[in-house]
Design brief:
Layout lengths: L3 E3 L2 E3 L3 E4 L2 E3 L1 H5 L6 H23 L9 E6 L3 H18 L3 E5 H12 L7 E6 L4 E8 L2 E7 L5 H11 L6 H10 L22 H16 L6 H26 L4 E5 L6 H13 L3 E3 L3 H4 L4 H12 L19
Parallel strand pairs: 5-6, 7-10, 10-11
Antiparallel strand pairs: 1-4, 2-3, 7-8, 8-9
Helix pairs in contact: 2-3, 4-11, 5-6, 5-7, 5-8, 6-8, 8-9
The structure holds 5'-O-[(R)-(carboxyoxy)(hydroxy)phosphoryl]adenosine (KG4) and zinc ion.
The site of zinc ion has 6 residues, from helix 4.
Length: 326
């Protein structure tokens, strides 16, 4: 759906047999962000090889595959179209059921692969480069939106603030590492206010952080990048954890999970585990490789759609703005 091409073989929605990922990050780095045209072209080049690798690594042939799941949206249209076309070709050629999966639902489902005992209901924070939601997972495939960002996604905020520190795209992971060595009390950043109890806003924080950096530099004051990164990371993580735990506790949830690229953030992982457990919740955190974009999470979500008999037709189309809660 964005800048990763991936295919996976998943057994019963839970067991990952393979999950190769071709990342295009290096190609987009010089532009400071994902260039959709380049992404589409690279997906076309990589998709068949990823499917072959997924089968090979799972040590199985296409004959033992029962169904094909694919990301229908949200995401970049050219990327989505490549995946949808490849999945349709496989489904048609092999006479297999085709299943359409929402990318965000895929992120949530990474938790099923990572935690074989986790079952709904649970509350899940989904924080990625394009989306930030707090979701109540009531049953498999049944989601209720409790809150989310009113403007930028959490990952987007990380990436934009990282740029000010001259960290290459995508800045999130590198800013995270830099922050590990910094003092998170060194700089004071605003705590954004939102109307909705479980909503958060990053646009104001991001702008304040970027403006403050420019202001200091104009005055000839050197910014301590490690402290800056640590202070910013602390603001974002506190906000995400506060809102997620409030939503979970207020709705009577017993379990809380996290998903999406930002769930790879080391402070977010540590704080959600620490504060969640202190509040009496069971906390589920997938390994980092299952937090960022991958195909096994799509396969897992697809399995539960297949079990519910929710199949897609062969005229399936990519939907760049597909909404999971509509
Ligand atoms: O879920 P994902 O792989 O792709 C989207 O669906 O957007 O998320 C990518 C986002 C990027 O913004 C990236 O900077 C952020 O996740 N990210 C992180 C970390 N690892 C990835 N943000 C903060 N800390 C990290 N360790
Ligand atoms: Zn994603």
């Amino acid at each position: 759906s964005c800048d990763e091409t991936s295919a996976a073989v998943v057994d019963d929605g839970r067991i990952m047999l393979s999950n190769p990922i071709a990342s295009q990050i290096k190609l987009h780095e010089i532009y400071g962000g994902v260039v959709p045209e380049i992404a589409s072209r690279m997906h076309v080049e990589a998709v068949d090889a990823m499917v072959d690798q997924a089968l090979e690594q799972a040590n199985c042939s296409i004959d033992s595959i029962d169904a094909i799941a694919v990301t229908q949206g949200p995401g970049l249209v050219g990327a989505l179209l490549t995946g949808v076309a490849a999945a349709k070709a496989l489904a048609m050629g092999r006479e297999l059921p085709l299943i359409a999966v929402n990318h965000i639902e895929g992120h949530v489902s990474a938790n099923y692969v990572a935690h074989p005992d986790l079952e709904p209901p649970f509350v899940c924070l989904v924080a990625s480069g394009g989306h930030s939601h707090i979701v109540s997972v009531n049953h498999y495939g049944s989601y209720e939106l409790l809150g989310g960002t009113t403007d930028d996604a959490a990952g987007e905020a990380f990436d934009k603030v990282a740029r000010v520190l001259n960290i290459p795209y995508p800045g999130g992971p590198l800013l995270d590492r830099l922050a590990d060595e910094g003092d998170d009390h060194a700089y004071k950043f605003p705590r954004p206010h939102t109307e909705g109890k479980y909503d958060f806003s990053f646009s104001g924080l991001k702008t304040a952080v970027i403006n403050q950096a420019h202001h200091l530099r104009q005055q000839g004051v050197e910014i301590n990048a490690k402290d800056w990164a640590a202070s910013f990371r602390r603001s974002v993580v506190d906000l995400l954890v506060d809102k997620t735990l409030s939503a979970a506790l207020d709705t009577g949830a017993k379990r809380v999970a996290v998903a999406g690229g930002v769930a790879a953030n080391s402070l977010l992982r540590a704080e959600l585990a620490r504060r969640g457990e202190k509040a009496g919740l069971q906390v589920f955190i997938p390994p980092k490789r299952l937090c960022t974009d991958n195909a096994v999470m799509i396969g897992s979500a697809g399995f539960y759609r297949l079990m519910a008999g929710e199949l897609a037709a062969l005229d399936l189309n990519a939907l760049p703005s597909l909404n999971m809660f509509g």
